[in-house]
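Reading a protein record of the kind used here takes only a little practice. Think of the row as the fold of the chain written in a discrete alphabet. With that in mind, consider the following protein and its fold in token form:
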Amino acid sequence: MPVRQLPETVVNRIAAGEVVERPASAVKELVENAIDAGAHRIDIFTDGGGRRRIAITDDGQGMTRDDLALAVERHATSKLDDEDLLRIRTLGFRGEALPSIGSVARLNITTRHASEPHAWALNVDAGAKSDIAPAALTHGTRVEVSDLFYATPARLKFLKTDRTEGEAIREVVRRLAMARPDIAFTLAGEERAPVTWAAALPGAPGQLTRLGDILGSDFRAAAIEVRAERDGVTVEGYAASPSLTRANALGQYLFVNGRPVRDKLILGAVRAAYSDYLPRDRHPVVALFVTLDAQEVDANVHPAKTEVRFRNAGLVRALIVHALKEGLAREGRRTAANSGGAVLTAFRPNTMPPPRTGYDWRTSPAFPAAAAAPAVARDEFMQGFRETVQAGFDVGAPAADVRYEATPTADLLDRPLGAARTQIHETYIVAQTRDGLVVVDQHAAHERIVYERLKASLEQNGVQRQILLIPDIVEMDEATVEKLLAQSDELEKFGLAIESFGPGAIAVRETPSLLGKTNAAALLRDLAEHMAEWDEALPLERRLMHVAATMACHGSVRAGRILKPEEMNALLREMEETPNSGQCNHGRPTYVELKLADIEKLFGRR
């Protein structure tokens, strides 16, 4: 087949396939044009999931008649001052959005520039351009797209339902609105109620307000401000405390120089930063804004501009991890149950049915024999009835070993975790503060303390070891033995010295002194289970932290151990001095707190 030049209409439709994948792609391109035009307010309306109609109106600077004529030509743009593609400071710059949309749909553009006496309008129908005509518009630009992909029917078959496409549009607008809190957005359509995000104040407060409006009040309540800067790269934004998690990573947002992007870089960095705080099946909610010189990032690696490539990706990743870890350590006492609302909703006061009025047992069909019996028999019957009812209230001895610490000192009441008053079910410590009470899971709390000690000891002078007088011999299957022996060097850094003891057996000669007396067999089996999930890409630091977390679990105060009052108070004081004590190293909360005002609400006193 000979080489031939493709017709312009076919070229435009090929470009449309790269840039306009679905209605949400068209919305993204048009809203980005409005942002680049200096708009302070952008209104978006869609119908039929965007395939029937998309209308976007902005109050930006608009276009002149000559600019409008060029705007629908391929590779025509106002976003580049020169031909240097390494200095991209706008969201759009390729000059393909409008001609690509016009080649597969019916496109109408009405715009007015401040220097023009009136507005101008232009229509593009499947690539066919109309003449420019005068129109009515006070200022800015209005773009309407009708019958998207009608010129390429095959593309319509690949679109999802109207509801699904509408949700994709909503997600695109949400991301752009998060990136620009100074712009007011309105999203409306026949398939949804109108949503308006008002323009917020400049700076961090306005940014948090916009993020709270979009991600919800629970994010605003749990948000931790994060910031880090080095070598001209700045990472700032907000990360939710470990109390707010999702089942997937869709709640993680990254913006590079104001551009919403999806990048695997943030997923790995966020996972590393939260590794000490969350269970493996939970994901945090974060919104991070990376600012750096335009020459240090390539925004031209994807036709839809949803991906970027950093010149120094390692620096950006390290800054993200540092910013998140520093913020989480600063707010380390926030727990999954410390918010009053979360605790209050867990309580459901029992409601007794209202007493029945005008009720006489003598006439009740439930006691026919007693009603007909003589008075003496009725008295005997009632006596037995009262004894039976009273027995129902006899709950016997307490189900837990409850000890009461009578007189807490004033200085302990003023401590963040208060004074220990009792231990219930041999697992939970109840402490009293000046304005409420705290319930501590003794095992989870001590687990975090031991874990942080192991990390600190490893950083300073290595983990202190205790040599076993008689080595523990642990029998396991040969495959598990090989896995453990392959990681023996990493385990030795934490004071766990192991060696082969014939086929299917391991000899444990030294254990970390922090763990005290420990069950070597159970510890090795847990370590083997965690190592089965490792791959070669997992950094050494993360592997060591997995080992430390597993050891900390085995070296902690177990649930079911009876503690003396002084031991309970000592544990509370250690929690107050330990970083990240709000969660254990598996991500579970170590304590819950109820303020006195919350308790009064439960009993209707407020």
The radius of gyration is 33 Å.
